[in-house]
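Query form — protein Tol-Pal system protein TolQ

QUESTION: What is the three-dimensional structure of this chain?
INPUT:
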Amino acid sequence: MQGEMSILQLVLDASLLVQAVMLILVLASVASWALMFRKRAVVNDAVETAEEFEDHFWSGGNLAEIYARVGSSEEANGGMERMFRAGFREFSRMRKQGASPEAQVEASQRAMRISLAREEDELESHLPFLATVGSTSPYIGLFGTVWGIMNSFRALGTQQQATLATVAPGIAEALIATALGLFAAIPAVIGYNRYASSVERLCGRYETFMEEFISILQRHAHAQASQTPQEQRD
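ANSWER: The structure tokens for Tol-Pal system protein TolQ are given below.
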């Protein structure tokens, strides 16, 4: 308890600039933790919905039936469903217009790539903030430390007899800024690396599904084109 009161007293006795540095670092740390908890929920939900959709998609069934299920609501359940809906909707529209198989597939692929880009932007949102906190917090803390030590030595120059007891409090309060910088930076770096890797793997999963789905649409388009008009009506 005494140690806690001593640290608190050192913070309260610090100069305004050092206190401002400490406040910035504390706020950055709190924001980083809040963002990491939110990003964890978003990534876990995206992975779960992707697994559910893949299980349903690869279990068999007509593509039109799958589209009818995921297209019945305005909000698709997960990024992979949104990609599927965008691709199949464009594929159906081009087919109704009598476009060539190549045009049908190209339009569907273009729509899915746009949807994929949106999903990537959503998943990667706020990750640069974690990277910024992780890279700049130690330097912000070091700035507060240098400023505090500089003030301690300036005050020391006005005294006739210098002892360790006279400079220790000023140096200690300055070093707290460095400690807070590391406290804010280390979790932010770990969180950024973890969630950037998770997002990269998930986006790779989306891209794999997109390529597989485009191959399926390509087979459907060419099969439809090879049918006679009577077979298409049947």
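ADDITIONAL NOTE: Residues 2-225 form one domain.
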